Amino acid sequence: MKQIAIVFFAVVISLSSRAQSMDSYVQEGEFGVAIGAAHYFGDLNTRASLNRPKFSAGVFFRKQFGNYIGLKVGANYARLGYSDVYSKNEFQQRRNLSFNTNLWEFAVSGDFNFFKFYPGISGFTYTPYVSLGVGVFSYDPYAYLDSTKYFLRPLGTEGQGSAAYPDRKPYGSMAVCFPVAIGFKYNVSPAINVFAEVGYRFTTTDYLDDVSMTYAPDAFVTTPNGQPSPAMLLADRSYETGPLIGVKGRQRGNSSQKDSYVMAHFGVSFNISSYRCPKP
Protein backbone atom coordinates (compact mmCIF):
# COMPACT_ATOMS: atom_id res chain seq x y z
CA MET A 1 0.00 0.00 0.00
CA LYS A 2 2.83 2.38 0.83
CA GLN A 3 4.33 1.93 -2.65
CA ILE A 4 0.95 2.50 -4.30
CA ALA A 5 0.48 5.69 -2.30
CA ILE A 6 3.93 6.94 -3.31
CA VAL A 7 3.19 6.28 -6.99
CA PHE A 8 -0.21 7.93 -6.66
CA PHE A 9 1.19 11.09 -5.11
CA ALA A 10 4.02 11.20 -7.68
CA VAL A 11 1.48 11.10 -10.50
CA VAL A 12 -0.66 13.79 -8.85
CA ILE A 13 2.37 16.06 -8.36
CA SER A 14 3.48 15.48 -11.96
CA LEU A 15 0.04 16.29 -13.35
CA SER A 16 -0.26 19.33 -11.11
CA SER A 17 3.14 20.61 -12.23
CA ARG A 18 2.22 20.06 -15.88
CA ALA A 19 -1.10 21.84 -15.42
CA GLN A 20 0.66 24.81 -13.81
CA SER A 21 3.13 24.93 -16.72
CA MET A 22 0.28 24.91 -19.22
CA ASP A 23 -1.57 27.57 -17.25
CA SER A 24 1.49 29.81 -16.96
CA TYR A 25 2.69 29.53 -20.58
CA VAL A 26 1.04 31.82 -23.13
CA GLN A 27 1.79 31.57 -26.84
CA GLU A 28 1.24 35.13 -28.02
CA GLY A 29 1.93 34.29 -31.64
CA GLU A 30 4.59 33.28 -34.12
CA PHE A 31 6.37 34.56 -37.21
CA GLY A 32 7.87 32.47 -39.95
CA VAL A 33 9.11 31.88 -43.46
CA ALA A 34 8.11 29.28 -46.02
CA ILE A 35 9.25 27.99 -49.38
CA GLY A 36 7.68 25.67 -51.90
CA ALA A 37 5.85 25.61 -55.21
CA ALA A 38 2.82 27.19 -56.84
CA HIS A 39 0.61 26.14 -59.74
CA TYR A 40 -1.88 27.94 -61.96
CA PHE A 41 -5.34 26.76 -63.08
CA GLY A 42 -7.32 28.48 -65.82
CA ASP A 43 -7.97 28.73 -69.55
CA LEU A 44 -4.62 27.18 -70.48
CA ASN A 45 -4.81 24.49 -67.78
CA THR A 46 -8.43 23.44 -67.96
CA ARG A 47 -7.93 19.98 -66.44
CA ALA A 48 -6.23 21.21 -63.25
CA SER A 49 -2.99 19.44 -64.11
CA LEU A 50 -0.12 19.83 -61.65
CA ASN A 51 2.63 19.23 -64.20
CA ARG A 52 4.25 22.68 -64.24
CA PRO A 53 4.87 23.83 -60.64
CA LYS A 54 6.95 26.95 -60.17
CA PHE A 55 8.80 28.59 -57.29
CA SER A 56 6.93 30.16 -54.40
CA ALA A 57 7.87 31.60 -50.99
CA GLY A 58 6.31 33.61 -48.19
CA VAL A 59 6.56 35.25 -44.79
CA PHE A 60 3.88 35.62 -42.13
CA PHE A 61 2.95 36.69 -38.62
CA ARG A 62 0.26 34.89 -36.64
CA LYS A 63 -1.41 36.31 -33.54
CA GLN A 64 -2.82 33.62 -31.25
CA PHE A 65 -6.10 34.00 -29.35
CA GLY A 66 -5.87 30.95 -27.12
CA ASN A 67 -4.74 27.48 -28.16
CA TYR A 68 -7.09 27.03 -31.10
CA ILE A 69 -7.72 30.34 -32.88
CA GLY A 70 -5.19 32.55 -34.66
CA LEU A 71 -5.16 35.50 -37.07
CA LYS A 72 -2.45 35.37 -39.73
CA VAL A 73 -1.09 38.20 -41.87
CA GLY A 74 1.05 36.93 -44.73
CA ALA A 75 2.88 38.01 -47.87
CA ASN A 76 3.67 35.53 -50.63
CA TYR A 77 5.47 35.47 -53.95
CA ALA A 78 4.70 32.98 -56.71
CA ARG A 79 5.86 32.47 -60.24
CA LEU A 80 2.96 31.18 -62.35
CA GLY A 81 2.86 30.09 -65.95
CA TYR A 82 1.55 27.57 -68.44
CA SER A 83 1.38 26.78 -72.16
CA ASP A 84 -1.02 25.15 -74.57
CA VAL A 85 1.81 22.83 -75.66
CA TYR A 86 1.25 20.85 -72.44
CA SER A 87 -2.39 20.13 -73.33
CA LYS A 88 -3.71 17.03 -75.07
CA ASN A 89 -6.72 18.98 -76.34
CA GLU A 90 -6.51 19.51 -80.10
CA PHE A 91 -7.95 23.03 -80.01
CA GLN A 92 -5.53 24.14 -77.32
CA GLN A 93 -2.60 22.69 -79.22
CA ARG A 94 -3.66 24.71 -82.26
CA ARG A 95 -4.35 27.82 -80.17
CA ASN A 96 -0.73 27.70 -78.99
CA LEU A 97 -0.88 30.40 -76.29
CA SER A 98 1.40 30.69 -73.26
CA PHE A 99 2.14 33.05 -70.39
CA ASN A 100 4.20 33.65 -67.26
CA THR A 101 3.63 36.09 -64.43
CA ASN A 102 5.20 37.16 -61.17
CA LEU A 103 2.51 37.26 -58.51
CA TRP A 104 2.73 39.14 -55.20
CA GLU A 105 0.06 38.40 -52.61
CA PHE A 106 -0.95 39.96 -49.29
CA ALA A 107 -3.61 38.14 -47.28
CA VAL A 108 -5.26 38.01 -43.87
CA SER A 109 -6.55 34.62 -42.67
CA GLY A 110 -8.24 33.09 -39.67
CA ASP A 111 -6.62 29.83 -38.50
CA PHE A 112 -8.16 27.03 -36.46
CA ASN A 113 -6.09 24.33 -34.71
CA PHE A 114 -7.80 20.96 -34.40
CA PHE A 115 -5.73 20.06 -31.31
CA LYS A 116 -4.68 22.12 -28.32
CA PHE A 117 -1.22 23.49 -29.13
CA TYR A 118 1.27 24.20 -26.31
CA PRO A 119 4.84 24.58 -27.64
CA GLY A 120 7.35 22.82 -25.41
CA ILE A 121 4.79 20.79 -23.45
CA SER A 122 4.73 17.05 -24.17
CA GLY A 123 1.52 15.79 -25.71
CA PHE A 124 0.51 19.17 -27.12
CA THR A 125 3.29 19.77 -29.65
CA TYR A 126 1.47 19.13 -32.93
CA THR A 127 -1.80 19.92 -34.63
CA PRO A 128 -3.46 19.90 -38.03
CA TYR A 129 -5.15 23.19 -38.86
CA VAL A 130 -7.36 24.90 -41.42
CA SER A 131 -7.30 28.47 -42.65
CA LEU A 132 -9.72 30.77 -44.46
CA GLY A 133 -9.00 34.32 -45.54
CA VAL A 134 -9.08 37.15 -48.05
CA GLY A 135 -6.28 38.94 -49.83
CA VAL A 136 -5.13 41.00 -52.77
CA PHE A 137 -2.47 40.21 -55.33
CA SER A 138 -0.71 41.84 -58.25
CA TYR A 139 0.06 40.12 -61.53
CA ASP A 140 1.26 41.09 -65.00
CA PRO A 141 1.24 38.26 -67.58
CA TYR A 142 3.90 38.22 -70.26
CA ALA A 143 5.03 36.04 -73.15
CA TYR A 144 7.99 35.80 -75.50
CA LEU A 145 7.97 36.46 -79.23
CA ASP A 146 11.23 35.87 -81.11
CA SER A 147 13.08 35.88 -77.76
CA THR A 148 11.64 39.30 -76.87
CA LYS A 149 9.58 39.62 -73.70
CA TYR A 150 6.20 41.37 -74.06
CA PHE A 151 3.80 42.22 -71.26
CA LEU A 152 0.38 41.22 -72.56
CA ARG A 153 -1.99 43.52 -70.66
CA PRO A 154 -0.96 46.73 -72.51
CA LEU A 155 -1.34 44.95 -75.87
CA GLY A 156 -5.08 44.29 -75.43
CA THR A 157 -4.89 40.83 -76.99
CA GLU A 158 -8.69 40.41 -76.86
CA GLY A 159 -9.49 43.91 -78.06
CA GLN A 160 -9.39 45.60 -74.65
CA GLY A 161 -9.16 49.36 -75.10
CA SER A 162 -9.91 49.19 -78.83
CA ALA A 163 -12.57 51.44 -80.38
CA ALA A 164 -13.82 48.35 -82.20
CA TYR A 165 -14.67 46.75 -78.82
CA PRO A 166 -15.86 49.55 -76.53
CA ASP A 167 -17.31 47.07 -74.02
CA ARG A 168 -13.94 45.41 -73.44
CA LYS A 169 -12.04 47.45 -70.90
CA PRO A 170 -8.38 46.81 -70.02
CA TYR A 171 -8.10 44.53 -67.03
CA GLY A 172 -6.26 45.69 -63.93
CA SER A 173 -2.96 44.57 -62.50
CA MET A 174 -4.51 43.64 -59.13
CA ALA A 175 -7.30 41.32 -58.03
CA VAL A 176 -8.81 39.78 -54.91
CA CYS A 177 -8.12 36.24 -53.73
CA PHE A 178 -9.76 33.99 -51.16
CA PRO A 179 -7.21 31.55 -49.66
CA VAL A 180 -8.44 28.22 -48.27
CA ALA A 181 -5.68 26.16 -46.69
CA ILE A 182 -4.96 23.03 -44.68
CA GLY A 183 -1.74 22.38 -42.82
CA PHE A 184 0.12 20.50 -40.14
CA LYS A 185 2.35 22.11 -37.50
CA TYR A 186 4.89 20.42 -35.22
CA ASN A 187 6.77 22.01 -32.34
CA VAL A 188 10.43 20.88 -32.32
CA SER A 189 11.51 23.05 -29.37
CA PRO A 190 9.86 25.63 -27.09
CA ALA A 191 10.83 28.33 -29.59
CA ILE A 192 10.62 26.67 -33.01
CA ASN A 193 7.91 24.98 -35.10
CA VAL A 194 8.02 23.35 -38.52
CA PHE A 195 4.97 23.10 -40.75
CA ALA A 196 3.57 22.06 -44.11
CA GLU A 197 0.64 23.84 -45.74
CA VAL A 198 -1.33 23.65 -48.98
CA GLY A 199 -3.52 26.62 -49.87
CA TYR A 200 -5.90 27.05 -52.81
CA ARG A 201 -6.75 30.57 -54.00
CA PHE A 202 -10.07 31.45 -55.58
CA THR A 203 -9.72 34.76 -57.43
CA THR A 204 -11.85 37.51 -58.96
CA THR A 205 -9.96 37.64 -62.27
CA ASP A 206 -10.02 35.60 -65.46
CA TYR A 207 -6.88 37.26 -66.79
CA LEU A 208 -4.03 35.66 -64.85
CA ASP A 209 -3.19 34.06 -68.20
CA ASP A 210 -4.40 36.95 -70.44
CA VAL A 211 -7.05 34.60 -71.90
CA SER A 212 -10.79 34.98 -71.26
CA MET A 213 -13.18 35.76 -74.13
CA THR A 214 -13.15 35.65 -77.94
CA TYR A 215 -10.69 36.52 -80.68
CA ALA A 216 -10.73 40.13 -81.87
CA PRO A 217 -8.51 40.25 -84.97
CA ASP A 218 -9.95 43.55 -86.21
CA ALA A 219 -8.70 45.34 -83.08
CA PHE A 220 -5.11 45.39 -84.35
CA VAL A 221 -3.31 47.39 -86.98
CA THR A 222 -0.17 46.52 -88.87
CA THR A 223 3.16 48.24 -88.32
CA PRO A 224 4.21 51.13 -90.64
CA ASN A 225 6.08 48.68 -92.85
CA GLY A 226 2.95 46.56 -93.26
CA GLN A 227 4.01 43.74 -90.94
CA PRO A 228 1.80 42.28 -88.19
CA SER A 229 2.22 44.06 -84.86
CA PRO A 230 3.42 42.18 -81.74
CA ALA A 231 -0.12 42.48 -80.33
CA MET A 232 -1.56 40.77 -83.42
CA LEU A 233 1.03 37.99 -83.33
CA LEU A 234 0.62 37.33 -79.60
CA ALA A 235 -3.19 37.42 -79.70
CA ASP A 236 -3.37 34.52 -82.15
CA ARG A 237 -0.32 32.25 -82.28
CA SER A 238 -2.02 29.48 -84.24
CA TYR A 239 0.04 30.57 -87.28
CA GLU A 240 2.94 28.72 -85.60
CA THR A 241 1.06 25.39 -85.71
CA GLY A 242 -0.95 25.70 -88.93
CA PRO A 243 -3.60 27.93 -90.53
CA LEU A 244 -4.94 30.81 -88.43
CA ILE A 245 -7.92 29.91 -86.25
CA GLY A 246 -8.52 33.29 -84.61
CA VAL A 247 -11.53 34.51 -86.57
CA LYS A 248 -13.65 37.26 -85.05
CA GLY A 249 -16.01 35.99 -82.37
CA ARG A 250 -14.42 32.55 -82.03
CA GLN A 251 -13.89 31.44 -78.46
CA ARG A 252 -10.37 32.11 -77.22
CA GLY A 253 -11.03 31.35 -73.54
CA ASN A 254 -13.81 30.59 -71.08
CA SER A 255 -15.03 33.76 -69.38
CA SER A 256 -17.52 31.88 -67.19
CA GLN A 257 -14.78 30.56 -64.89
CA LYS A 258 -12.22 32.61 -63.00
CA ASP A 259 -8.56 31.65 -62.83
CA SER A 260 -7.06 30.28 -59.63
CA TYR A 261 -3.78 29.07 -58.16
CA VAL A 262 -2.44 26.91 -55.36
CA MET A 263 0.62 27.19 -53.12
CA ALA A 264 2.29 24.29 -51.27
CA HIS A 265 4.82 25.37 -48.65
CA PHE A 266 7.19 23.91 -46.08
CA GLY A 267 8.38 26.33 -43.44
CA VAL A 268 9.70 27.18 -40.03
CA SER A 269 8.19 29.53 -37.47
CA PHE A 270 9.40 31.09 -34.24
CA ASN A 271 7.17 31.38 -31.20
CA ILE A 272 6.46 34.61 -29.39
CA SER A 273 5.55 33.66 -25.83
CA SER A 274 5.02 35.12 -22.40
CA TYR A 275 4.47 33.78 -18.91
CA ARG A 276 1.91 34.61 -16.30
CA CYS A 277 1.58 33.69 -12.64
CA PRO A 278 -0.33 30.43 -12.22
CA LYS A 279 -3.73 30.65 -10.61
CA PRO A 280 -3.56 29.90 -6.88
UniProtKB/TrEMBL annotation:
DUF6089 domain: residues covered: 20-142
Swiss-Prot/TrEMBL keywords: Signal
InterPro entries per UniProt: DUF6089, OMP/PagP_B-barrel
Top-level taxon of origin: Bacteria
Stretch forming the signal peptide: 1-19
Protein name: DUF6089 domain-containing protein
